Amino acid sequence: MDIVMANQGGHNVVVRDYRKGNWTVQETMVLIEAKKMDDERRMKRLGESGGERSGKPAELRWKWVEDYCWRNGCLRSQNQCNDKWDNLMRDFKKVREYERRVVSSEERGGTTTTYWKLEKNERKINNLPSNMLPQIYEALVDVVERKGQVIGGGGGGSAGGSGGGHPPSTSTIPNIPSLPPPPQHPFAPQPDPVLLPLPPPPQHPFSHPMPTVDSDSDTSEHQVSPAKRRKRGEEGPSGVAGGGISGNKSHEVGSAISKSASTIAAAIQACEEREERRHKKLLSLHERRLKIEESKAEISRQGFNGLVDAVNKLANSILALAAQNNQPPPN
């Protein structure tokens, strides 16, 4: 289904609504027919151009396949067509190779079962596609054999319906003859390679030897800032003083790191102690709450028992009074 949309310039742009999901058998057959027509079209153009390769990229070729599929009811994109064709060729090559092994086994007197009589689990065990249909396989055989005959000039031989004989070529690019190797005498000994000595590095005609520099004094002077050089001047220009300063600095850094580590450890320990004290306080509060609830329950129970006793006593008194009133008067 084509969707017409308007862009910013006011022109109508056709956007295709591609179908998603699994491919049907009809869509697969349309794709195979489109690929066969594309191969014939390209081979015809190749013959008209005298064997020169076309400069069109693969995207344009698959765009032509997409257009053909759309004209025949297969609403798929060129990427979907390309991926589906790669999967078809992969499964086709597996089935074709297996059928060739079946034919060779029958020629030797074996009893190998053909692919079309295998169950799905047996196909999976043999690393074969489980859903290859015979009509799709025959259509692929037709496409591959026709392409092999066109590329090979009709001398590649035809294969049987189930895939016997020489394997047809599946390349979509015609073979380009390679350049012949240079002629060599069959028994001419090959000379050993001669290693030439490397020439010495060129020297400037006016070059003079560089003066030697004291590595302990001048190198350190170039590596430090003027402020540090002034600070070192108080102790003397010797390299020993610089080594002492670096040693003192490393010692100070080490002591600072140890102090920081001890401070962090003390802080962590104090935090853990505070957490433990807080936990103990929470436990004590919980215990106190339980005791208060138990005492409240005991008081309520005692009050209820006292109320029951009072009601019983009152009932007994009422009964005694009623009995006394019901007695007959004395004569």
Protein topology:
Elements: E1 2-6, E2 12-16, H1 25-48, H2 58-71, H3 78-107, H4 120-125, H5 134-152, H6 218-223, H7 226-233, H8 239-326
Antiparallel strand pairs: 1-2
Helix pairs in contact: 1-2, 1-5, 2-3
Radius of gyration: 50 Å
Helical content class: 55-70%
Would you report the number of β strands?
A: 2
Portion in beta strands? under 5%
Structure description:
The protein is mostly helical. It has 8 helices and 2 strands; from the N terminus they run ββαααααααα. The protein has helices at 25-48, 58-71, 78-107, 120-125, 134-152, 218-223, 226-233, 239-326; strands at residues 2-6, 12-16. The chain has a two-stranded antiparallel sheet with strand order 1-2. α1 packs across α2 (58-71), α1 (25-48) runs parallel beside α5 (134-152) and α2 packs across α3 (78-107). The longest helix is centred in the last third of the chain and has 88 residues, at 239-326.
Keyword list:
mainly alpha, single chain, two-stranded antiparallel ribbon, elongated, 331 residues, 3% strand
Short description, anyone?
With 331 residues, this protein is mostly helical.
